[in-house]
Amino acid sequence: MHVLYLLVLTILPEIAWAAPPPTPAGTLFQTAWALMVVIGLILALYGLSKKRFFLKKGGNHIINVVEVRPIHPKSSLTLVEVRGREYLLGVGPDAIHLLAELNQSSEPQKQATDFSSLLAEHS
Prior knowledge:
Number of helices: 4
Distance between the termini: 92 Å
Protein name: Flagellar biosynthetic protein FliO
Structural class: alpha+beta
Strand content: 25-35%
GO cellular component, one term: bacterial-type flagellum basal body
Transmembrane segments: 28-48
Shape: rod-shaped
Order of helices and strands: HHHEEEEH
Organism: Desulfobulbus oligotrophicus
Number of strands: 4
Keywords: Bacterial flagellum, Cell membrane, Cell projection, Cilium, Flagellum, Membrane, Transmembrane, Transmembrane helix
């Protein structure tokens, strides 16, 4: 078997030698193609993780964060809805404080649609 291999290599010397050196354009094309494939895989995994494809999540949410408004680099006002009731929370780096419960009255009231009007209404 080895003799046959050596015979083929001596008869056809171009098989014995490595491929011709790559051209700069060919190398650039191969590098660009590999980079596009890697970036495509990263974007695909990012998109799947945003849709929570890997982690199944139930549809019944009891606590919903309606809006977060930063007021300082480490502090924010957060509007949270829990079982139909809204709470305005002050969230800091060390603690969370209840600032106001926004749905205390029993009579139906006109619901404000944006955070600024809710804040102005209860301050």
